[in-house]
Amino acid sequence: MFRGLGGYWSWFMSIAKQLFVEILRRVPLFNELSEDELGSIAAQVSVSRYDGGQILYSEGEKGGDLLVVMEGTVRVVRMSASGRHQLLAIERAGSSLGEVSAFDGGPYSATAISITPTEILRLQGQQFRAICLAHPAVAVKVIGVLGHRLRRLRNLVEELSFATVRDRLISHLLRLARERGVQSETGIGILLDENNEELAARLGTVRELISRNLGRPHGEGLIVMRRRSVCIPDEDALRAQLLR
After folding, report:
1. Minimal CA–CA distance to 214: which of 235, 202, 229?
2. Each residue of 171-195: pLDDT tens digit?
3. Which CATH number does the domain 163-243 belong to among 1.10.3540.10, 3.40.50.1460, 1.10.10.10, 2.60.40.10?
């Protein structure tokens, strides 16, 4: 039977709402809410689409919205007056962004830039704060997320203040080996999903120093470079470099 335009629109919106519910369910802030509660939030969100390299929001910009990555990858950075970037995080599908601004209504504290074509669910800050009041567990989770990011930023400040570029790079490779390294007969293999410029932004330096400090341990046999992958033949030997 022909539904008519209104019928198809209602059907489409119902499918979209269910999709939003499934996405919100994967977000740590909301994963303990009921189906009805998630449905209520899903009915309030809007969708924004960005090409790769577009700015979602800028540091200091008046904010207030909570963003959820529906599809794609987003880089969160702080920018210096000279234009250098310090990478704070890379967020993928299921991650939330802008929690501080949504929580207190203040400006955004960093800049978010899409790396790939990205789709975002956007929830107005006023609606998000109402959810926090109605569901204190959500507010507690926001505090937990912010606490985790604060510890990560504290570690970043310590590394930038006290560690050399070589030490920062070695620590990063060891962290990647622990989190997603693949053991083989020749060592621990790591697939690098960032180029040298992106690694430089993450580690608070410039691309030339990343290239130099990857080349030296490669020449010393501590790592083996293969295009966008690294093999660590002896993890203990590489870790010992941090104690020198």
Report:
1. 229
2. 889 988 998 889 988 889 998 888 8
3. 1.10.10.10
